[in-house]
Amino acid sequence: MIEDEIREDVIRRLLFLDPQLVAVVVNDGVVSLAGELENRTEVQLLEELSRRIAGVVKVESRLTYKVDDRRLEGTNPLV
Fold first, then answer.
1. Cα separations (Å) of 2 from 66, 71, 79?
2. Is residue 37 classed exposed, middle or buried when 0-12, 13-18 and 19+ CB atoms within 10 A define those classes?
3. Helix, strand or coil, per DSSP, at residue 76
């Protein structure tokens, strides 16, 4: 089942996150994701890895994040 694969394989085993942080609903191959993760990279990875699962035709995401870690790239905290 797609929902189980996302919760166990992607969220828990690949991203090492608590599956309770994300609401996952699958209807006719359309995956809906909702919840708040720690950073933007985790959100993007979850969305992309979910798209790659066999049987998924679309991912609708209402995921948010606490920290935009992409914005921090290239900054020098010592300056």
1. 27, 32, 47
2. buried
3. coil
Integer-rounded Cα Rg, in Å, for the chain is 14
Q: Measure the CA–CA gap between 63 and 39, rounded to whole angstroms.
A: 10
DSSP 12-74: IIIS---GGGEEEEEETTEEEEEEEEEEHHHHHHHHHHHHTSTT--EEEEEEEEEE-TTTTTT
Specify whether the CB–CB gap between 56 and 29 falls below 8 A.
yes
* pTM (2 d.p.): 0.86
Q: What is the tens place of the pLDDT at every residue in 12-36?
A: 999 999 999 999 999 999 999 999 9
Report the alpha-carbon distance of residue 33 to residue 6 in Å, rounded. Answer: 10
